[in-house]
Amino acid sequence: LASRGVAVHLADHDPGQARTAAALGAGTDEAPEGRVDLCVVAVPPAHVAATLADVMRRDVARGYLDVASVKGGPRRELEALGIDLTPYIGTHPMSGRERSGPLAATADLFEGRPWVLTPTRDTDTEVLNLALELVALCRAVPVVMDADAHDRAVALVSHMPHLVSSMVAARLENAEETAVRLCGQGIRDVTRIAASDPRMWIDILSANPGPVADLLSAVATDLDETVTALRALQSADDAKRREGAAGVEGVLRRGNAGQIRVPGKHGAAPTAYEVVAVLIDDQPGQLARIFADAERAGVNIEDVRIEHATGQQAGLVQLLVEPKAAPTLTAGLRERGWSIRQ
Ligand SMILES: NC(=O)C1=CN([C@@H]2O[C@H](COP(=O)(O)OP(=O)(O)OC[C@H]3O[C@@H](n4cnc5c(N)ncnc54)[C@H](O)[C@@H]3O)[C@@H](O)[C@H]2O)C=CC1
Ligand SMILES: O=C(O)C(=O)Cc1ccc(O)cc1
Q1: What's the first-to-final CA gap in the chain, in angstroms?
Q2: Residue 101 Cα: closest atom of ligand 1
Q3: Phi, psi of 161, rounded to the nearest 5 degrees
Q4: Is the C-alpha dihedral spanning 141, 145, 147, 149 positive or negative?
Q5: CA-proximal residue: ligand 2, atom 4 (nearest)
Q6: Cα–Cα distance between 66 and 91 in angstroms, integer?
Q7: Residue bearing the bigger pLDDT, 135 or 304
């Protein structure tokens, strides 16, 4: 927002956090002189209602919004506090990091990502417009939803997957080092969000327990059936083994059918990018040089993945590009001395 010319005033109950964010260029940690246009409350879900009630009673802004990962609970808490909700809109940007705090923030975090808005019939139009302006400034894509429908949707696409990621990662806690050092990209993808702060997630899950429990119970049924199928695969009986194989194939095929529904970049239909894999030494500046050389070759990089080889000072950078740009990028990088993996 600050880089787009918006005056941003930062406040936090830990002044050190606001100071750090201000030092990173996010705004100023000085209080505004008068009423501001929009007050954005970005505190843990359990503190959203009380924080909003405080700022709304002090009349600090024309409009108020929060960004908490759950929407039904905070609204009901505010209603119970007897606050006039017309200048408030509940929102949720569907993008984040597994790390919290100002040092984990990036200016482009919300670019191209859905940002859910949950206005009601009573929401002030001016406040809805202010929220839409905020979403546009962050280059996110506004999606209007009912608060409870939002909570059921995020249980499916965020809260249940978070717990499953934690459960997979938990298997590694006491595993042998010889096994853990074989970790590749697959397990990194599945466990990335398990690194998140448990305190924030206890808050999020406490505010949405029912829908998450329903989904996890469906996952438990799949798990039971898959264990039965795998046990059948161990049988000496041919027919039983065939039954087991069919059971395992079933869950893998249903996984394929679900996976292709995951939207690609900018919420559009998934694009099949081509991977150009470059072998790099683990030295400072290597990534910046690759990106600069890709730019020289006139190729837009759509996404990047980095795979570190265990115990080696080397890594594999996978550059994802439009299929028609892949040969140009490969040739351009080879010309500049990069080692391309087929
Ligand atoms: N981290 C993520 O990926 C996403 C988080 N959210 C939501 O955004 C909100 C903030 O999360 P993060 O920025 O990740 O957490 P964070 O921990 O980085 O920031 C929360 C800040 O709130 C401050 N705080 C706590 N209680 C307060 C109070 N009563 N008054 C004033 N400040 C208070 C804390 O000192 C902290 O600096 C949460 O509601 C979360 O559900 C939404 C989308 C993504
Ligand atoms: O790290 C990721 O990919 C996330 O999806 C993080 C995230 C965490 C909480 C949210 O409410 C929304 C997004």
Answers
A1: 42
A2: 18
A3: -60, -35
A4: negative
A5: 96
A6: 6
A7: 135
Residue of 71, 91, 94 with the most ligand 2 atoms within 8 Å of its CB, for mutation: 94
Closest to 98 in 3D by CA, of 108, 86, 87, 106: 106
Phi, psi of 37 (to 5 degrees): -70, -50
User: What tokens does 335 get?
Assistant: 């010309």
94, 95, 110, best to mutate for ligand 2 pocket (most atoms within 8 Å of CB) = 95
Per residue in 141-157, pLDDT tens?
999 999 999 999 999 99
Specify the 3-state DSSP secondary structure of 337: coil
Beta carbon of 42 within 6 Å of any ligand 1 atom: yes
Q: Is the CB of 275 under 6 A from ligand 1?
A: no
- Structure tokens given for 226: 């898959």
337 Cα: distance to centroid of ligand 2 (angstroms): 38
Best residue among 20, 56, 91, 100 to mutate for probing ligand 1's pocket (most ligand atoms within 8 Å of CB) is 100
Cα–Cα nearest to 326, from 294, 296, 284, 281: 294
Buried/exposed code over 292-307 (b: 16+ C-beta within 10 A; e: otherwise): ebbeebebebeeeeee
Tokens of 149: 């429908």
Q: Is 140 in the pocket of ligand 2 (CB under 6 A)?
A: no
Please report the ipTM that was assigned to this predicted complex: 0.96
Express each pLDDT in 162-172 by its tens digit. 999 999 999 99
**Residue with CA nearest ligand 2 atom 10:** 69
Residue 15 Cβ contacting ligand 1 at under 6 Å: no
Give CA–CA dist 40/263, Å, rounded: 28
Q: Which helix (H) or strand (E) holds 65?
A: strand 61-66
